[in-house]
């Protein structure tokens, strides 16, 4: 006996939170919006976006709320060409360039070798922290506080944070987060720049300020 075919429905993605990995589908013909998770997508490598037409199977969660499973794009949909903004594409080069300048400063005796190690260590910790937070967001686990991520950037982990934002596509589009993040970068680089100034210049600046 042939098993009954599971019906598929069609709708349009009304909202999508890429960092959290979930969104909602507006059903064709009306009705409540249907929740779906990125894991429900049958196609890999193509990220959904608001306005995409999709088909799906309908199920319910433990609370009786509708949930989409085996979600697929309606018809053929080529992978979209995403044009990175100038800031996003320049981020890795900025981080790498900073480490090159830092290494030159160490070689010239302007900074102790420990400074390079501290920045490298803080960047590694920040990179890992972003990766864990991205994974937690996708799987509904306990998140890392944004204040913790900002503190890691402030103490010297911002190059690693920049790379993580690009690699994991995490926190890079949240305006409020980016404003505070770049403030920590400015403060950290300002402190480092002050340390690189000759003692005579620092004394003169302090005398003017005083």
Question: Quick summary of this structure?
Answer:
This protein is 50% helix and 17% strand. With 210 residues, it is of the alpha+beta class.
Describe this structure in words.
The chain is of the alpha+beta class and 210 residues long. It folds into 2 domains: 9-73, Nucleic acid-binding proteins (OB fold (Dihydrolipoamide Acetyltransferase, E2P)); 88-209, no CATH class. The chain contains 5 helices and 5 strands. The protein has helices at 86-107, 113-139, 146-168, 175-196, 199-209; strands at residues 9-17, 22-27, 34-37, 53-60, 66-73. A hairpin with a 5-residue loop joins β4 (53-60) and β5 (66-73). The longest helix is centred in the middle third of the chain and has 27 residues, at 113-139. Mean pLDDT is 83; it is low at 78-87.
Spell out the key features of this protein.
17% strand; 5 helices; five-stranded antiparallel β-sheet; 210 residues; 5 strands; alpha+beta; elongated
State the major sheet. 5 strands, antiparallel
Distance between the termini: 91 Å
Poorly predicted runs of 5 or more residues = 78-87
* Strand arrangement, major sheet: 3-2-1-4-5
Overall body shape: elongated
Q: Could you say how many structural domains there are in total? A: 2
Mind sketching the topology for me?
Elements: E1 9-17, E2 22-27, E3 34-37, E4 53-60, E5 66-73, H1 86-107, H2 113-139, H3 146-168, H4 175-196, H5 199-209
Antiparallel strand pairs: 1-2, 1-4, 2-3, 4-5
Helix pairs in contact: 1-2, 1-3, 2-3, 3-4
